[in-house]
Amino acid sequence: MGYIVVARWVARKEHQGDIERILRELVPRCLTEPGCKSFVAHQSVDRPNEFLFYEHYGEEKDFIDHQATSHFRD
């Protein structure tokens, strides 16, 4: 089955555009990580400054490795 992460990110409304830009760059990079099976970012239709992430990794260690990447920390 793997290791699943579901996360919610609520951005300040004035930063919504910045977050959208960051996600356009972040998601493809995450998908290239070893152990990353899926990384999907959703933006709320009703509250566009809210984002939901669904991440699927082979195992917990893959998620821990993901958190150590420069693109995650940035």
The CATH C-level class name = Alpha Beta
Strand segment tally: 3
Strand-and-helix sequence, N→C? Answer: EHEEHH
Q: What is the helical fraction, as a range of percent?
A: 25-40%
Q: Please tally the helical runs, counting DSSP H or I stretches of 4 or more residues.
A: 3
Number of domains as seen in the coordinates: 1
Quaternary organisation: single chain
Rg for CA atoms: 13 Å
Question: In this structure, how is the largest beta sheet organized?
Answer: 3 strands, antiparallel
The assigned CATH architecture is: 2-Layer Sandwich
Task: Give the averaged pLDDT, no decimals.
Answer: 95
Derived structural class? alpha+beta
CATH topology: Alpha-Beta Plaits
Beta percentage is 25-35%
Span between N and C termini?
Answer: 29 Å
Contiguous runs where pLDDT drops below 50 for at least 5 residues: none
Overall shape: it is globular
Strand arrangement, major sheet: 1-3-2
Q: Please, could you describe this protein's structure?
A:
- By secondary structure, the protein is of the alpha+beta class.
- It has one domain (3-73): Alpha-Beta Plaits.
- Helices cover 38% and strands 32% of the residues.
- The protein is built from three helices and three strands, in the order βαββαα.
- Strands 1-3-2 form a three-stranded antiparallel beta sheet, covered by helices on one side.
- It is globular, with a radius of gyration of 13 Å.
- It starts with a strand and ends with a helix.
- The mean pLDDT is 95.
